[in-house]
Amino acid sequence: MNWIIKPGSPIDDFVPYCQADKPSQCNYKDCAGAETYTCTGVHCEVLTCVAGGYTCNNASCVDYWGQCFQTDATCPTYCPTYCPTYCPTKGWICTDGKVCNPYTNPILP
Amino acid sequence: MKESMYNIWMEGDNGAKLCYNAFASGFAELDKETYKFFMKCASKKIDPNNFTDKEKESYEQFKKGGMLVEETLNEQDRVKLKFLQSTYSPNSLGYTLLPTMACNFKCTYCFEEQKPVSMSREVIDKIKEMTTEAFKSSYLEYFAITWFGGEPLLGYDTVIELSDFFINLCNERKVKYSSHMISNCWLLDKEKAKALSERKVTHIQATIDGPPDIHNQRRVLRGGGPTFDRIVQNVLEASEFIPIAVRVNVDKEIAKDFTPLFDSIKILAGKKNISIYPGLLTSEATKACASVENMCLNVQEYAEVLTKFYQSAIEKNLGFSWYVRSMSSSCCATRPTSTVICPDGSLVRCWNQVGQEKESYGNIMDMKAINGENYFKWVLFNPFDKEECDGCVFMPCCLANCPAKWLPMTTDFTQTDRKLEKCASYKYNIKDLLKITYAEKKKEAQKKQEEEKAAQKA
Ligand code: SF4
Ligand code: SF4
């Protein structure tokens, strides 16, 4: 069997992704030559990564479920990294006992 | 195992079969023997333990390409889940920003009602404030901007100011940033192209309306005057810094003979950082756009013309290629984490609604006063409740196509024969287009082989 165009589609085509057939046509500079990657307008992804996320250009696995960059009580509603406990009335409680601020996305009505 | 409902089969060369799978988006050539084996795998209870090494390899490839799926898998459910995950994922934020409604062109078909409003200081500051707030979400991974207008380069200072602000924010929070711009390219000199590239504008979409004599009648300067040569020149120069996608609008007149068009854009074809693709002129957007109705093609006519476009391009060795991949969500108009922000701060969902007050769902200066009717019909758009699309082989790529064609609008859209127009054009010509791609790829592979042989000899 001969692949004329290899299968693969980005996990998230949040922005229109490029339809390059070969790495040299790819608009995203880090993608060049990475022939196993699906080329998107933003980045290159492999669909499977043992750590549960995806690998980009052999660099690192990004946690697919999002990361919390906060280290203090400013962390928003859902904060699995620093707030392991969920309290129905208070929201997420961080390990140091602080409560995460409820977060509302300002572009949502 | 069973055969995927998203397989599309065609005849290849020398008795081979070609298979495109609309979910996995792969396109394969199967020789007679492999095709026979595929059919065996798809129709019988098979035991992979008894396969030869070659069969094992083929079997894995069938699965990888989505051509062969588990008996119990409901493939439509899988597409639906992918759609829901992506549409409602909080990991992305996207704005389409219009730094100005002003335009230095006066195209005959333009759907925007021309109001020369530029983004005010209050609106710019409010966008910054709102974005800073949105970046408090721990889910956020991607932030994408589309610069739109009017002509966004007439609001160049706003583009630079906001880009710098967004990029800083993304760097601080390790969020991936990207942006692209839709511009007429009249003002796109080298200096601006370089500055935009430094502001992570990953590509710019330019538009050409046919060969110079037609283009210069339609895409005219506001004060009168031709634009073709300067657009082409600017695209060439700017492509040194930024990839440019040149959309070539096609209508009944241009489609009569592609030769003059191809001759005039030959200078752009095959250049690094420049891609060329055909676009359909639609008369559906607004009353203003209805002025071009007799020039526009309907989707079926467009499909025919598109086949001719790629065929002629190949004959002329222009190296254009066509392909469609599956999508995980409909357009940004349906994603709650995306919005279009007009220069006066008013918010709309779809690009075609820019400047249409009746379709606006609010204003960023007062996010509490939202017009629910104009908002929720978009973000709850469901491609899977459309009777016409149920079981359609194109669903993973098309997802019911443009939501605006299904949703009830407040504005008086012209909506001629909307039922006919809903489907994506490739529904009518995918086999022809894929065969062109097949021929083109084979030619490329052959050329590569010959080059390798020659190199070895040397
Ligand atoms: S709804 Fe249709 S017309 Fe509007 S932005 Fe989306 S794809 Fe474009
Ligand atoms: S809009 Fe047409 S082509 Fe697209 S999924 Fe529906 S029926 Fe298929």
Please list the strands of the largest sheet of chain B in the order they lie side by side.
11-10-9-8-7-6-12-13-14
Largest sheet of chain A: 2 strands, antiparallel
Largest sheet of chain B: 9 strands, mixed
Bound molecules: iron/sulfur cluster
Strand content of chain A: 15-25%
| Uncertain spans of chain A | 9-84
Helix content of chain A: under 10%
Shape of chain B: globular
Characterise this structure.
The complex is a heterodimer of chains A (109) and B (458). In chain A, 0% of the residues lie in helices and 18% in strands. Chain A has 109 residues and is mostly beta strands. Chain A has a two-stranded antiparallel ribbon with strand order 2-3. Chain A has a two-stranded antiparallel ribbon with strand order 4-5. Chain A has a two-stranded antiparallel sheet with strand order 6-7. In chain A, a hairpin with a 3-residue loop joins strand 4 and strand 5. Residues 9-84 of chain A have low confidence and may be disordered. Chain B has 458 residues and is an alpha/beta fold. Helix content of chain B is 38%, strand content 15%. Chain B has helices at residues 32-43, 53-64, 75-87, 121-134, 156-173, 190-198, 212-218, 228-238, 252-255, 259-265, 299-315, 372-379, 395-398, 418-421, 426-457, and strands spanning 2-3, 7-11, 17-21, 27-30, 68-69, 92-97, 142-147, 176-182, 201-208, 244-250, 274-280, 338-341, 346-348, 362-363. In chain B, helix 4 (121-134) links the parallel strand 6 (92-97) and strand 7. The model of chain B is unreliable at 285-290 and 412-420 (pLDDT under 50). Bound molecules: iron/sulfur cluster (2 copies). One iron/sulfur cluster binds next to loops of chain B. Residues 388-389, 392, 394-395, 398, 400-401, 422-424, 427 of chain B line the site of one iron/sulfur cluster.
